[in-house]
C-alpha cells in the first residue's frame, strides 16, 4: 500500500537546537495517525515542515508520490494538506459564515453557501452563520477551525492538539467527528491526551529529541520499553 | 554637513531603536530647533556669541519638551502601534510646520554665528565655524554614546529596547523612558539645527531635506544600529557633495531615494543592523 | 437576497442625489462636487488597498500622477484625444502599481510604508528631472481640443460634472461589486489574518498585488480624469501631499467602507476650502485632523456607524 505522505531524513534546526533531526515518516491513506512525544520533542516543528509553514533544511517530503519539499505553504494547501493551528487561528472579526466560506472558496466550489452549510453541519455548528467568530466559546472556535479545515476537502488533515481546552463532552463529540472523516480524509494529529490517542489512533509515531522513537499500533507502542522510559513513565495514564 | 546629518540621524535612530517608532516629524524638530535659535538670538539682549550658546542650550531643551509632550498626548495613547504612529507623526509634521509658518512667517532668516574665523590652510581657506560644527557634533555624539553605555539612564533605555515587557516587570517606567527617549531624539535634531543654522538660514520648510537624508542614513546604516548610522552618515554626507558635482542635485536625490527603497526591499537590515 | 438589493439601492440613491445636485447647486459648489467625485475615486482605490486589504501605502500619489501624465503627455505632445488618453491613464496607474508592487510587496508594515513613500518621492523627482518634457513643477495646460468626450466639451460645467459623475458611479459600482465578491472576502481575510489565509491556500503576494493593481487602476483613472476635466497637469500632484490626502479621506470617511472615501473627500475638501480662506497655514488643519482622527476615531464616520449598529454596511 503506497503511503499517502512520506518524509525521508527530514531535518530542521534553530541555531544549536536540533528540533527535527532526521525523521523518516509514513502516513497511510485513510488512517488516523497520532504523533506523540514529550514537550519539545519536535512535534509542532515537524508538522510545520509538513504543512510548509517552515522551510526544510534537509530531507524530502512527498505527497502521493509527488515531491513537495520546495512547495510553498499555500500551494500545499491546494495540493490537499489542511492544517489547524495549535493556538486557534480564525478570523475573529468575521462571521462564522465568512470564516468557512473562505475555505470553501479556496477549493473552488461553485456553491459557497452549500459548502459552508455542509462543513458547519459536520462539526455541529449549524445555525451560527451570522455570529461573529470572536464571540464564540473557545470550544466552538476550535470546532470552527476544524470546519474550515474540512471545508477544504483535504486529503490530509493535520490537527495540532485539537482537544486542548475542550470539556469532556466536547472531546467525545470530537472523537466521533474524527472517526466519521476517515477513510476519505487521512488524519494526522498531535495530541497529549493519551485517552484520545489510544482510543482514536490506528497507528502512533513517538518523537523524542527530534527523532523517531517508535512507530506502531497503540498496543505495540504502549508496550515498547523505550517509549515507556521516555514518555509514558511505565503507565498508560493520561500525561 | 555630514556631522550634522549624523547628529540628526542618530536622534531618529534612537527613537526607532528604543521605541520601535518611525517619527516622520523628525525633520520638524530640526526645523523647530533652528527657529528656536533664531528666536533666542533675536530676543536675548546679550552679545551674539553668548546668545548663540544660550540657543544651543535652550532650543534643544524646548524642542525636547515639545517632543515629550507630543509623546505623552499622542503617541502613548496609540500604544505605539507602528502604522498608527506614522500616520500621527505625519499629522504632527503638518502641525509643527504650519505653526512655524504662522508664527514665524514664510521667509528664511539668518542667524549670526557665534564667531567668525577663517583658517588659512595652504590649499584652501576653511571656515573655522564649520570645523567647530564638526567638533561640536562629535562631542555631542560622544556624550550620547557615553550616556547610552555608561550611565544608568542609558542602561535603562537599552533594556527597554531589548524587551519592553521584561523592562516593565523590572519596575522600569516604560512610558517615562519613551517620553525621555523621544525628547532626546528631538533634542539631538534641534541641536544639530542650531549648529547648522548660522551657515544655512532658518526657514519653516527646512525640515524636509534633513528628514529625507536622516531616513536614508538610518535605513542604509541599519535601523537600530548606532555604528551603522554614523558610517552611513559619513558616506552619504560626503558623497552628497561629490555626486552633486557630477550630476544634478535632483538626480542625486532620485538615486538616493531609490537606494533607500531597494535597501529596504532586499537588505532590510541595512549595513550594520541586526536581522530581526 | 434582500440585503444585497437594499445595499445597491442605497448606493444608487447617492448617485441619484448627486445627479440631482447638478441642477440645484450654484456653479461654484457644483464644480467643487465634480472635483470631490474624482478625488473620491482616487480615495476609493486607496481604500481597496488600505481599508480592505490592509496595505498602508504612502506612495499613491505616484499612481495618480502616472494616470495624469499618461493622459496629459500624449495629448500635449502627440495630439491624442480625450477618450484614449483617459484609458491610457487608467492603464498607466495599474501598470505602475504592478511594477512597484512587485518590489514593495516583498516588505510589510512600516517597511512597506517607507518603500512606497520612497518610490513616490523618486517618481516626483523624476518628473522634475525631465521637466522639459513634463512641465515639471509648473505643469502645463491640457489642450482644449483634447478636452472633449463623445462630442461633449469637458471644459464647460455641465458636461464636466456629468463626466465626473459617470466616472464616480462606475467606480462606486465596481468597488461595491468587488467588495461583496469572493475576492473581496479574500482581501479582507488577508488583512485580518495573513497566516491563516496562507494556510487556507491563498498566496498572500498574489492577493496583495492584485489589490494594489486594482487600486492603481482607480488612482490612474482619477488622475487622468482630474487632468482632463480641470485642464491642468502638474508635478505637484505627485508630491507626498497627494499620497496623504487619500489616506486622510479614507480615515475620515471610514476605512473599509464603500461610501467612506466619498464622505471623507467631501468633508475634507470643504474643511480645506474653508480654512484656506482665512489662513495660508491650512495644512495645519490637515495635520490636526490626521492626529485627531487616528487618536479618537480611527474607524472614521461610516466605520463608527457600522460598528455601532449598521453591520450590514459594506
Short summary:
By secondary structure, chain B is mainly α. Chain B has helices at residues 2-19, 26-43, 48-75, 82-104, 128-150, 152-162, 164-169, 174-196, 208-221, 226-246, 249-266, and strands at residues 118-120, 125-127.
Q: Your description of this structure?
A:
The complex is a heterotrimer of chains A (239), B (276) and C (314). Helix content of chain A is 37%, strand content 25%. By secondary structure, chain A is of the alpha/beta class. A six-stranded mixed β-sheet of chain A has the order 6-7-8-3-9-10, sandwiched between helices. A four-stranded antiparallel β-sheet of chain A has the order 2-1-4-5, covered by helices on one side. In chain A, β9 and β10 form a beta hairpin. In chain A, α3 (96-106) packs parallel to α5 (138-151). Chain B has 276 residues and is mainly α. In chain B, α1 (2-19) packs parallel to α5, α2 runs parallel beside α4 (82-104) and α5 (128-150) crosses α6. In chain B, a hairpin with a 4-residue loop joins β1 (118-120) and β2. With 314 residues, chain C is mainly alpha-helical. Chain C has one domain (2-308): Orthogonal Bundle (ABC transporter involved in vitamin B12 uptake, BtuC), CATH 1.10.3470. In chain C, 75% of the residues lie in helices and 3% in strands. Chain C has helices spanning 2-24, 27-52, 61-77, 82-104, 109-129, 131-134, 157-180, 182-192, 194-198, 204-230, 241-253, 260-278, 283-296, 300-308, and strands at residues 140-141, 148-149, 152-153, 232-233. In chain C, a hairpin with a 2-residue loop joins β2 (148-149) and β3. Chain C is globular. The chains are: A alpha/beta (239), B mainly alpha (276), C mainly alpha (314). Chains B and C meet through α4, α9 and α11 of B and α5, α11 and α13 of C.
Strand content of chain C: under 5%
Find the CATH topology of chain C.
Answer: ABC transporter involved in vitamin B12 uptake, BtuC
Measured by DSSP, the beta-strand proportion of chain A falls in 25-35%
Largest sheet of chain A: 6 strands, mixed
What is the C-level CATH assignment of the domain at 5-80 and 154-232 in chain A? Alpha Beta
Helix/strand order of chain A, N-terminal first: EEEHEEHEHHHEHEHEEHH
Helical stretch tally of chain A: 9
With strands numbered from the N-terminus, the spatial order across the biggest sheet of chain C is 1-4
Treating each run of at least 4 consecutive H or I residues as one helix, how many helices of chain C? 14
Average residue-wise pLDDT of chain A: 86
Main pleated sheet of chain C? 2 strands, antiparallel
State the CATH architecture of the domain at 5-80 and 154-232 in chain A. Answer: 3-Layer(aba) Sandwich
Strand tally of chain A is: 10
- Please tell me the total number of domains of chain C: 1
CATH superfamily of the domain at 5-80 and 154-232 in chain A: P-loop containing nucleotide triphosphate hydrolases
CATH fold-level name of the domain at 5-80 and 154-232 in chain A: Rossmann fold
Quaternary arrangement of the chains shown?
Answer: heterotrimer
